Amino acid sequence: MIGKITGRIEYRALDHVLIDVRGVGYLVFCSDRTLASLPPVGEVAAVYTDLLVREDLMQLFGFSTLAEKEWHRLLTSVQGVGAKASLAVLGALGPDGVSRAIALGDWKAVTAAKGVGPKIAQRVVLDLKDKAPAMMAMGGTVAEALGDHEAEVIEAPVKRSAPAPMPNASAQSEALSALSNLGYSPSDAAGAVARAAGEAPEADVSTLIRAALKLLAPQG
Questions:
Q1: Is the whole model's pTM more than 0.90, yes or no?
Q2: What's the gap between Cα 72 and its chain centre?
Q3: Separate counts of helices (H) and strands (E) for the chain
């Protein structure tokens, strides 16, 4: 399994790039969001990858973060969602947006992806609703790991900034953990944190917790 590659971008297309790794060219398909985050042709890029192997096909998919790669794996586990649809969802919403939409049960947000209709969007939300809390909790760890990561340099040294972490990912992760410790179910806590983070993207942990608790409080 090819889990990550680092090399020079030889060319870019609408849905893929060719990355040269010590003379071997890898054709890597990516979401619009990931393609936009990659450096120009001739510079070094590092992407996490997932290899699809079928009887008549081998394709390599690239992701700028581990969270995006994990969501791709989960999305393609849903019946009727292939790699193309998964990349469309991730391109439209990003991994943080996918977490929020599924935690809130907002299937209409998923239909923002090209080629994804209401039926498939509803199935995605229904099948993956129990996965959103774990992915939101994973967000802080992923963001911190990427912040410390330095790209491997092939041939001449080329500076490349680390992929931008998901906005507020660490705060959401800590708030989710705190609510779980208070006895709230993972799905209820994830939904409340997702709503609170959506209303205040730059909120710190304590602010998110207070806002989420208000949302979870019984309505009199």
A1: no
A2: 8
A3: 9, 5
Helix (H, G, I), strand (E, B) or coil at 56: coil
CB 129 within 8 A of CB 187: yes
> If one looks up domain 4-63 in CATH, what number appears?
2.40.50.140
Tokens of 40: 């120009």
DSSP 8-state code for residue 117 = -
Q: Which of 79, 80, 134, 73 has its CA nearest to residue 102?
A: 134
Long-range contact set of residues 45-48: C-beta below 8 Å, sequence gap at least 24: 45/6, 45/7, 45/8, 45/9, 45/17, 45/19, 45/151, 45/160, 46/4, 46/5, 46/6, 46/151, 46/152, 46/160, 47/4, 47/5, 47/19, 48/3, 48/4
Q: Where are the domains of the chain?
A: 4-63, 66-133, 140-150+166-214
What is the topology classification, in CATH, of domain 140-150+166-214?
Helicase, Ruva Protein; domain 3 (1.10.8)
Both tokens of 146, joined, read 């990427």
Question: pLDDT by residue (tens digit) across 64-122?
Answer: 998 899 999 999 999 999 999 999 999 999 988 898 889 888 899 999 999 999 999 99
